[in-house]
Amino acid sequence: MQLLTFLNPALISLLALSDTTLAAKKVPKDAILLSQVKTLTLRNNAKTSHRRVSAIPQLTCKGPGCSHYKIDVLRCTNQGASYGDEDIEWSCTASMPEEFKLGSTEVICEGYSSPDDPYVLKGSCGVEYRLVYTDKGEEKYGGGYKWPGSGSSDGEGSTWFSYVFIVMFLGVLGWILYSAWQGLPAQQRRVPRRPGRFWGGGWGGGPGGGDPWDPPPPYPGRKPYGSDQEGWRPGFWSGTAAGAAAGYMAGRSGNNRQQEPLLNNSRGSSWFGGNNNGGGSFTAPSRSGSSSSSSARHESTGFGSTSRR
């Protein structure tokens, strides 16, 4: 009996150890806990590994700056867990032109057996990052004037408002021109008639009928029509509209000088850009997905959490 009493705890310990060993052996080699991952390095135009679902790009850009620049390499660092041991928070850093900065960054990994599995497939993590404008980028790419409250802080321009304002400006301009035309005297608005076929010495040099383009002489005691009418003068609303439109167009022209590079003639000074070889040529700026005209660069950092697919 004493021997059995001694052996029972030993057997229980051995069984528990064997169960732990078997459980450890069941974890596949290509599965890993995110809490064990210290850093992630993601590259543009590269795909993640996949097992249950399709692969995704290692870097996915969201936000207004993506049409002008995309990050080449992004490095994310484990910042510890939030709610659970495997709910990892990340800080991601990349070098980029000074017109851009990182917003939020979300690390997306493939759960090994399901989206709820704490283990993830090695190499399956990608980052969805948001690229927004700095103040310099807003001046260069932001799209001109913004009505207060119509834009967002991450650089999304109020392009729709610009279009509406342009339509309103053209409408006001057309109304001003039409009012000015209507305010002119009738004699100035009248289109002259072409001389008739039998006017002024038509057959053999008879006496001329006078210049058909001259207005008729005024009647005695009466002023010519329209001489006592006052011409159109700009009023308060037309002056206000013209001033607002001029200010708006001046603001847009300043932004357009920064936003749209001029076409450069290679040589020569002819109207069509002719050069010494006799042919006209020009060079237009080329833009790639991961390049920018700015030479000054800086490091920007974004923060985010983890999701599983």
Automatic annotation (TrEMBL):
The keyword Transmembrane applies. Belongs to the SARAF family. It holds the Pfam family SARAF. It is a single-pass type I membrane protein. Residues 197-236, 249-309 are annotated as: Disordered. It comes from the Eukaryota. The keyword Iron-sulfur does not apply. GO terms for cellular component: endoplasmic reticulum membrane. Keywords: Calcium, Calcium transport, Endoplasmic reticulum, Ion transport, Membrane, Signal, Transmembrane, Transmembrane helix, Transport. Coiled coil: none annotated. One of its GO terms (biological process) is regulation of store-operated calcium entry. This is Store-operated calcium entry-associated regulatory factor. InterPro entries: SARAF. Residues 1-23 form the signal peptide. Residues 264-274, 286-295 have a biased composition (Low complexity). It is found in: Endoplasmic reticulum membrane. Residues 198-211 have a biased composition (Gly residues).
